[in-house]
Amino acid sequence: MRNFKEFSLDRAVIEYLPNEIGDSYYAADANGRIIVRKFPSTIIAQAYVEMLFSFKDWIDARADVRAVVDLVLPTEIGIDFIQREHRLYRFR
Questions:
Q1: Which of these, 88, 74, 87, lies nearest to 7 by C-alpha position?
Q2: What is the pTM of this model?
Q3: What is the pLDDT of residue 92?
Q4: Which pLDDT band holds residue 60 (cuts at 50, 70, 90)?
């Protein structure tokens, strides 16, 4: 498992939304578009990941919610960050 500093050596990330819970970064290159959230501590990172997976389980257990909510899980979980695919949504 790598930390954010190691991760940021592989991809050029741009900070776009500072936040007390974790600063958000964006990257777009030949590997695709991603969102990265860097947390101020490992404990906060672990709690955030646990919350995401619990929320995903809750969504999946309810067909009515699953029909309208698509939670994007991390594609990489680091010591102090998560990476997830950046999706563009269109509303009709």
A1: 74
A2: 0.84
A3: 62
A4: very high
